[in-house]
């Protein structure tokens, strides 16, 4: 329905038409989606920058988060591959403190959101993923009775130079090792989600799923941005060609998932208007709603089960601003 409405609006923008008739067939649904179809992210870069002006314990943030629930709250991104839980001074990387982890879990639980956490895949030993630090976090999580809904391992493995050393086959093994560790620690049922493929998704995704990744995962994820926020213009946000560029990408993704990981869910695991933090003074405005609504409609239509919005807070595409007020302001 959004799409038809959008086509109508775009037509009005593009051509000088005075009258258009549109027929909305609202009585019959083309797809049913889960109540958790729309989720949000918090970029793990926020952990590196000590959350900036965000406050996990703020009543205002909790109230806004409640307005989005039930939904997934995914904490992940490029910085995930630098994070260590409860890091000591001689260990490299970014510190996810015990208090950070407590606060994240409390926010998610109090808001009725399902937390998803993205583990560092760059912690390695003899070519394999080293689960030592993840095990500490999982043991603590079980001890506290926290129940995140899902876990990921790494971010955009096909896209990040430092992770490129991990082959598709090795990453599939690493995911299997993660699942093994989680069950040995006694983690209650959870979703294994990944591989959070970014940019050009093939052939990495196909090879990863064929190498056993498809068996291990519950939800297969790709990331999607229409364009780079540093060069995006206002016009891009109502460009129907740009909007439609999502269609072949989602079709190819869903086809590969259905063939190589039958029965598993397919998600846009991290997605927004533009990459690199969004487009300044555009991604946070009313006009960005067109891209977003079209993305939700197309994603449902083409068979995705979840769309996770980058981001709940932070950068130009944040749903709430640095004063913790909801966007758009104009
Ligand atoms: C959506 O769910 C309703 C109610 O369960 C069902 O009648 C309908 O056939 C479903 N539609 C599709 C497209 O799956
Ligand atoms: C955090 O690290 C300290 C010192 O290394 C250790 O004593 C403590 O048990 C750790 N906490 C958790 C929750 O792992
Ligand atoms: C990381 O966080 C813990 C608290 O969980 C703290 O004790 C430790 O000093 C921090 N490490 C660094 C290197 O800042």
From TrEMBL:
Pfam families: Glyco_hydro_79n
Alphabetical list of SUPFAM superfamilies matching this protein: (Trans)glycosidases (SSF51445)
Keyword Signal: yes
Entry-linked InterPro entries: GH, Glyco_hydro_79
GO cellular component: extracellular matrix; extracellular space; membrane
Annotated signal peptide: 1-19
Gene3D superfamilies named in the record: Glycosidases
Protein name as annotated: Uncharacterized protein
């Amino acid at each position: 329905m959004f799409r038809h409405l959008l086509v109508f609006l775009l037509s009005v923008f593009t051509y000088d038409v005075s009258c258009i008739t549109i027929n909305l067939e609202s009585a019959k649904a083309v797809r049913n989606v889960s109540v958790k179809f729309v989720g949000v992210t918090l970029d793990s870069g926020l952990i590196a920058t000590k959350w900036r002006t965000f406050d996990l314990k703020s009543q205002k943030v909790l109230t806004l988060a409640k307005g989005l629930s039930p939904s997934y709250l995914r904490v992940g991104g490029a910085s995930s591959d630098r994070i260590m839980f409860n890091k000591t001074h001689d260990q490299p990387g970014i510190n996810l403190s015990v208090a950070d982890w407590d606060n994240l879990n409390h926010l998610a639980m109090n808001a009725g959101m399902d937390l998803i956490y993205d583990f560092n895949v760059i912690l390695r030993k003899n070519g394999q993923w080293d689960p030592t630090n993840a095990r500490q976090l999982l043991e603590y999580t079980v001890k506290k009775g926290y129940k995140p809904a899902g876990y990921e391992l790494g971010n955009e493995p096909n896209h990040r130079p430092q992770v490129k050393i991990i082959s598709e086959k090795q990453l599939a093994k690493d995911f299997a090792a993660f699942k093994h560790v989680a069950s040995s620690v006694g983690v209650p049922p959870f979703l294994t989600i990944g591989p959070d493929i970014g940019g050009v998704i093939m052939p990495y995704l196909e090879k990863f799923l064929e190498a056993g990744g498809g068996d291990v995962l519950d939800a297969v994820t790709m990331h999607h941005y229409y364009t780079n926020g540093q060069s995006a213009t206002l016009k891009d946000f109502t460009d129907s060609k740009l909007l439609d560029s999502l269609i072949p990408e989602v079709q190819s993704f869903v086809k590969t998932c259905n063939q190589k990981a039958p029965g598993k869910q397919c998600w846009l695991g991290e997605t927004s208007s533009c990459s690199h933090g969004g487009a300044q003074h555009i991604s946070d405005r009313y006009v960005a709603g067109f891209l977003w609504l079209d993305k939700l409609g197309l994603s449902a239509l083409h068979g995705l089960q979840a769309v996770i919005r980058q981001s709940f807070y932070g950068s130009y595409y944040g749903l709430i601003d640095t004063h913790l007020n909801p966007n758009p302001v104009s």
